[in-house]
Amino acid sequence: MKYIIVGAVAGGASTAARLRRLDEHATILLFEKGEFISYANCGLPYYIGDVIKDRNQLFVQTAASFNQRFNIDVRVTTEVTLIDPVKKTVTAVNQLTGEVYQEGYDKLILSPGAEPLRPPLPGINSEGIFTLRNVRDTDYIKSYIQQNQVTKAVIVGAGFIGLEMAENFIDLGIDVTIIEMGNQILAPVDFPVAAIVQQHIRSKGVSLFLNSAVTGFTKDGQQVNVALKSGEVLNTDMVLLSIGVRPDTKLAVQAGLKTGAAKGIWVNEYLQTSDPDIYAVGDAIEFENPVTGQSMITYLAGPANKQGRICANNVVLGNVQKYQGSINTAIVKVFELTVGTAGTASKHLKTANIDHIVSTTHNGSHAAYYPDAKQMTIQIAFSPVDGRLLSAQIAGYDGVDKRLDILSSFIKQHKTIYDLIEFEHGYAPPYSSAKDPVNMAGFVAENILLKRLNIFYWNELGDLKPDDILIDVRREDEYLAGKIPGAINIPLDEIRTRLGEISKVKKIHIYCEAGLRGYLAQRILLQNGFSKVVNLSGGYLLWKSCVTESGLASNGVNKLINLPGESKNTQPLPMHA
Ligand code: FAD
After folding, report:
1. Which position has the higher pLDDT, 550 or 247?
2. Quick check: 502 pLDDT over 80?
3. What span, in angstroms and rounded, lies between the C-alpha atoms of 132 and 115?
């Protein structure tokens, strides 16, 4: 048997190694157009930021070590330019010598990855404008920073890589401005979670322009001027474009392989393309999203590596293992904050016409009485019919990764919010609370489904009728430090004695800091004859970051401002009920 693999990083190298483990006697050829194989793309931003100091640490394998360990013929700096699916050959070009040659295959595996987007804007190819995809880009960026004494950088696009680079630039002492065309950063998460992160990055001195499109670049001596649609021009030492990627389907299209609705290489559940002798994995393929049933591409290292293993099993053993799809579970460090997402965000569920309820809870990373507990916000979306969990998003300072992985595994296994309630965790004060934040998310969701808790959302406050009542049930000092306009203050502990002050016929909107005291107040009122009571999901905390951020976005303001009477502190917040 002769296997050829195109692309030798995440998906390709993983496939090659597994192929060898299953078939000791096969001929395996691994083509890579770059200089390096099996390197850590995910570590590149941290090498630029000097967190990873030794460049060699980025290389999981070299061509020589891969050959020695796996007896795989690795051909670096060699691009596969053509596939002939009838003759079952590929054409390869050695980029150093110019040699062009053909190789035949029994089975071909494509893992060409994705290409960074570079829209055809005026001046986009000027010196000082970079994308970050591979080691060559990394070396180029790092040396440019050193040789040009870069002190200002503009990052275009506020996705995972853009935000990781913002942190790493700031760590190098570089001033950062982020330009984002959307009304929020981190497109895979919903606005309320993005708003928390936006507040955090602004507090780190990052200038964030939302709803802002770049119209072009002009070179200004050693510097670059970045023109925005608003007419504003930003002068900077360098620009990093991180506006997304698209699947690299050039070879597949040329070979006549089917592409799908998401413009990736179409594969069946065995990762087999429309040609039975060609398989494909990684960023270039599309498959069915297990939550929405729609075609999707996932640009993540975990799925690419796992697909490599499954693909090799199917190639050698004959379509024995189905790929179950990916729910886009991703995590990113943004300065001190960690943000995680799994499943399909509410905004995308809406687009897919999937009915769902959203619930937001704030809890401590571990027991509040044990030092250094940090607040964590969990937003989940679930089915109103059977409680099936559809997505989870988390922002917090500690223990986010653990909760994300738990919730991701529940979503992937089609579990419900009732399973979150049953979820059993290891508890000691330094690690969690007797009721983990994951349990708490389940309890609140169950209360909502069983109509013990009626909620409303931060963006529905504008819909309040003049007759509606808005009650802040926090302590008076909290209320005086900052409140939602129009709210009256009846602290939770006084509510039973002040029932007479509240109208039984009007609709009552309640809020507290995080949601729990509002729920308790609602239970008191509902059991005392008040029938129209709703509690603000995510409480004042979520409202504050959402309102601040939506105000900034719509006014085109890029600096951190504070609501009247608000503290400027956006560090981990004290945990109030
Ligand atoms: P790649 O790993 O990109 O490999 C494709 C390879 O194919 C490339 O080396 C390319 O040169 C080669 N190739 C393409 N065409 C040809 C051809 N015709 N002939 C020969 N060779 C060819 N994911 C995460 O899950 N977590 C992270 O923290 C994370 N951080 C990232 C940070 C950065 C800076 C980048 C760029 C990506 C990050 N990713 C992260 C994404 C992750 O690296 C990718 O999802 C993953 O590498 C995709 O694997 P792949 O095999 O499809 O493509």
Report:
1. 247
2. yes
3. 10
Interval 298-327: pLDDT, tens: 999 999 999 999 999 999 999 999 999 999
Q: Would you state the pLDDT for residue 60?
A: 86
Pocket of ligand 1, candidates 5, 36, 42: which has the most ligand atoms within 8 Å of its Cβ, to mutate? 42
Q: What is the pTM of this model?
A: 0.94
For residue 461, the CA-to-ligand 1 centroid distance in Å is 44
* pLDDT given for residue 555 in this prediction: 60
pLDDT at 296 over 70: yes
What is d(CA 118, CA 121) in angstroms, rounded to the nearest whole number? 8
The tokens for 428 are 């000691």
* Dist. CA 63 → ligand 1 center (Å): 17
Helix (H) or strand (E) holding 3: strand 2-6
Tokens of 527: 């059991």
Whose CA is closest to atom 29 on ligand 1?
A: 42
User: Does pLDDT of 574 surpass 50?
Assistant: no
Count Cβ neighbours within 10 Å for each residue of 351-372 and write b for 16 or more, e otherwise.
eeebebbbbbbbbbbbbeeeee
Q: Give 282 Cα–ligand 1 centroid separation in angstroms.
A: 8
- Amino acid found at 441: A
- Tell me whether residue 546 is one of the annotated catalytic residues: no
Encoding tokens for residue 284?
Answer: 């270039």
Q: How confident is the model at residue 572 (pLDDT cuts 50, 70, 90)?
A: very low
Nearest CA to ligand 1 atom 27: 42
Q: Are 506 and 533 in contact (CB under 8 A)?
A: no
Q: Best substitution site from 300, 323, 401 to test ligand 1's pocket, by max atoms within 8 Å of Cβ?
A: 300
Strand order in the sheet with 488-489: 455-456, 533-536, 508-511, 469-472, 488-489
Pocket lined around ligand 1, Cβ cut-off 6 Å: 6-7, 9-12, 31-34, 41-42, 44-45, 79-80, 111-113, 132-133, 161, 248, 251, 282-284, 299-302, 304
Partnered with residue 82 across adjacent β-strands are: 91
Calculate ∠ Cα 290-295-299, nearest 5°. 85
Paired residues of 27 in beta bridges: 2
Six token digits for residue 58: 């980025």
pLDDT digits (tens, 9 = 90+) for 369-384: 999 999 999 999 999 9
- Rama region for 68: left / alpha / beta (φ>0; ψ in -120 to 50; rest): alpha
What is the reported pLDDT for 70? Answer: 96
Tokens of 115: 């290409």
Distance 299 CA to ligand 1 centre (A): 8
Residue with the nearest Cα to atom 53 of ligand 1?
A: 113
Gap from CA of 114 to ligand 1 centroid (Å): 7
